[in-house]
Design goal:
Blueprint lengths: L3 H20 L6 H42 L3 H30 L11 H6 L7 H10 L5 H6 L3 H18 L4 H22 L2 H14 L3 H6 L1 H27 L3 H18 L6 H11 L4 H14 L2 H17 L6 H15 L8 H11 L8 H35 L1
Helix pairs in contact: 1-9, 1-12, 2-7, 2-8, 2-9, 2-14, 3-11, 3-15, 3-16, 3-18, 9-12, 11-12, 11-15, 11-18, 12-13, 12-18, 13-14, 13-18, 14-18, 15-16, 15-18, 16-17
Length: 408
């Protein structure tokens, strides 16, 4: 029987092919309804299993990771290297997006009337930069039990950081608690390995539903923008990030992509960096050989604040909307988009449709109509696949870079 890596790859290919076949069936087809219904159930169970272990995994991996880093007197170098890498990789992603969008000008010449109904029926939940910061910082610090119960990742990360630091300062006094957390982390990773047995089936189901429910006519209309986002994101994921990894660590890009494949395929299928986190940590530790203390700190933090694919998408989408409404953005306005998209990608506020709200913030930063988000909503789920895979790839590259720099 082929290994789990091969099974996941085969499942992803089959899922896309079967989804394409389903999309060609009539809307009234009983076969289509049955396949989509079954896929929804199986895919939903797989995501729910990942979410089940997500919060305890984030909490224990960060707390234990910080405690172990402090014990080796590396924490300052790890912090600075991690944040420096996040800033560089996100900046490279947005520079690439803005450069390509300026060259190819997606949306230029498209009739805005094609999207008139969508824009009229869409109510933009607008959020200013000041309001964004209020929401963002308010959601950093909250009752840890409420955060754990509501699966709010960012406040759980912050609380785990405090616990990890307290464990170090307390030293031997809290040794039993640290040992307990380490054993609990090993227990959670064992459960993750059980869940991975179902990964091929879950990914197959998720991709069948994703591809099978796309509006083909709409995709044809905005095909240029979709191709630009997919192409630019793939360039960042297959060229820029592996090249950055090779320059710093001399690790082979092919070796990395083979080791990271499971996590990237899972991220592509689930469109969620956080839901993919259990698989990402497993790949980093078991296949890329990142130490548990490094992986346990860099990857959960990256899943909440390091979003290369999202920043790239928001920068490209802003120029797409500007071309649609016939506005020429100056260099100064594009720099505003650059910094706003970087801030927005670091963490969306805890409100419904948070990703779209941060997209509105980017549009408003240069005076573009917030209602234009309605144009992006129907294609957002499709575009979310590849940008999430690159988000996850960026976190794994970051863990290898941090390990290499701190071990020197």
């Amino acid at each position: 029987m082929p290994g789990i890596n091969v099974q996941i790859l085969v499942a992803a290919v089959l899922g896309i092919l079967l989804g394409w076949w389903v999309s060609g069936l009539a809307d009234t087809s009983a076969t289509r309804d049955l396949v989509l219904y079954t896929s929804g159930i199986v895919g939903g169970i797989f995501i729910d299993l990942l979410k089940m272990v997500l919060i305890p995994l984030v909490f224990t991996s960060i707390a234990v990771g910080i405690a172990n880093l402090q014990a080796h007197h590396q924490v300052h170098r790890v912090w600075t290297t991690t944040l420096g890498y996040f800033a560089v990789s996100t900046s490279l992603a947005m520079l690439l997006a803005l450069t390509v969008a300026n060259i190819f000008k997606p949306g230029a010449g498209l009739e805005l009337s094609l999207f008139k109904d969508a824009m009229e029926n869409f109510e933009a939940n607008q959020l200013t930069m000041a309001e964004f910061f209020v929401h963002f910082f308010h959601n950093l610090f909250m009752n840890p039990f409420a955060a754990l119960a509501q699966a709010k990742v960012l406040p759980v990360v912050i609380f785990a950081l405090f616990i990890g630091i307290a464990l170090v300062i307390g030293g031997e006094r809290y040794r039993n608690i640290l040992n307990l957390l380490q054993e609990f982390l090993e227990l959670i990773m064992r459960i993750v390995r059980w869940i991975m047995v179902l990964a091929p089936l879950g990914i197959l189901a998720l991709l069948i539903k994703l591809v099978g429910t796309q509006d083909v006519m709409l995709l044809k209309t905005v095909t240029g923008f979709i191709a630009l986002v997919f192409g630019t994101t793939l360039i960042h994921g297959l060229v820029v990030l592996p090249l950055l990894l090779f320059i710093i660590t001399r690790k082979s890009p092919l070796w990395f992509l083979r080791g990271a494949r499971d996590a990237m395929v899972t991220a592509f299928a689930t469109s969620s960096s956080t839901a993919s986190l259990p698989v990402t940590l497993r790949c980093a530790e078991e296949q890329l050989h990142v130490r548990r203390d490094i992986a346990g700190f860099v990857i959960p933090l990256g899943a909440t604040v390091n979003m290369d694919g999202t920043a790239l998408y928001e920068a490209a989408a802003a120029l797409f909307v500007a071309n649609l409404v016939g506005i020429e953005l100056s260099l100064a306005q594009q720099l505003v988009i650059f910094f706003t998209a970087m801030i927005a990608s670091m963490g969306a506020p805890g409100i419904p449709s948070a990703g779209m709200v941060t997209m509105i913030m980017v549009l408003q930063s240069v005076g573009l109509p917030a209602e234009a988000v309605a144009i992006l909503l129907p294609i957002d789920r499709l575009l979310d696949t590849v940008r999430t895979a690159v988000n996850v790839e960026g976190d794994m590259v970051g863990s290898l870079v941090v390990q290499h720099v701190t071990d020197r």
